[in-house]
User: Which sequence fits this backbone?
């Protein structure tokens, strides 16, 4: 079990991916994203998660450059957007992201959403990028079990990661166990339910019990489920606070109580029914 911010899970191809990282969804390009990434790296984070559609890859790249941490210590994720899906267009989109980030290689490249009729072509492009050594690991985001099964029928490389909406109101039990079975690392986006965690009575009660915040309780719950988590914040003190989850452990009973909050509630779009 993760005991330090530097601890990593090992993906099925042997690449190490930190258990906790900084997400930068909805973080403004320029000063805001640069400050957030710098604060995270200073606090000991080594994993940063962005995407082409966030329109802040340049800021992330600038902050990484300014941070002065050896490149091989960092784990940078970005994603191909829906409009760029398809074989050639994905290869082109990847080069654009890589250039904006100012990096020679990307650690993890994901298909952002399972666009019908396109994601298999897109996956072939990711396999090529992986084989060419431009990416250390490839994966998907927002894929349900049936999407993964479909992809696995004729892929040469199995996805290493599936990044999905995952939190106490959407505990994704079946998906989590399917991914574990297949050796695909599950990763949580919106782990803090877009800030809603502070309003959940059970999480307030457990925060009290463990001397932590509701957010820290949820991030610890992620980790104890073997789920990589990428809480987003732009405030330096919150970024630090989110990483302070390695010095305590939730009891099995409390884990089960949090699991019981599950009500299949999504704050984000439904991967089976989106139109963007």
Assistant:
């Amino acid at each position: 079990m993760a005991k330090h911010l530097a601890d990593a899970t090992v993906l099925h191809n042997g690449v190490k991916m930190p258990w906790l990282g900084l997400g930068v969804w909805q973080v403004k390009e320029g000063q805001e994203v640069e400050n957030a990434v710098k604060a995270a790296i200073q606090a000991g984070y080594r994993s940063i998660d962005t995407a082409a559609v966030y329109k802040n890859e340049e800021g992330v790249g600038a902050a990484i450059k300014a941070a002065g941490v050896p490149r091989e210590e960092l784990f940078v994720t970005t994603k191909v957007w829906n409009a760029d899906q398809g074989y050639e267009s994905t290869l082109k989109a990847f080069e654009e992201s890589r250039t904006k980030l100012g990096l020679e290689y990307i650690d993890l490249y994901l298909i952002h959403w399972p666009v019908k009729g396109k994601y298999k072509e897109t996956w072939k492009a990711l396999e090529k990028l992986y084989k060419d050594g431009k990416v250390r690991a490839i994966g998907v985001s927002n894929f349900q079990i049936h999407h993964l099964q479909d992809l696995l029928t004729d892929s040469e490389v199995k996805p290493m990661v599936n990044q999905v909406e995952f939190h106490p109101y959407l505990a994704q039990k079946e998906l989590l166990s399917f991914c574990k079975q297949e050796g695909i690392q599950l990763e949580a986006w919106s782990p803090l339910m877009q800030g809603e965690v502070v309003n959940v009575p059970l999480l307030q009660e457990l925060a009290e019990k463990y001397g932590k915040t509701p957010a820290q309780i949820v991030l610890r719950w992620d980790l104890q489920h073997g789920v990589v988590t990428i809480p987003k914040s732009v405030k330096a003190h919150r970024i630090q606070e989110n990483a302070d989850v390695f010095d305590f452990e939730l009891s099995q009973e409390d884990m089960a109580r949090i699991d019981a909050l599950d009500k299949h509630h999504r704050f984000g779009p439904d991967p089976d029914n989106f139109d963007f």
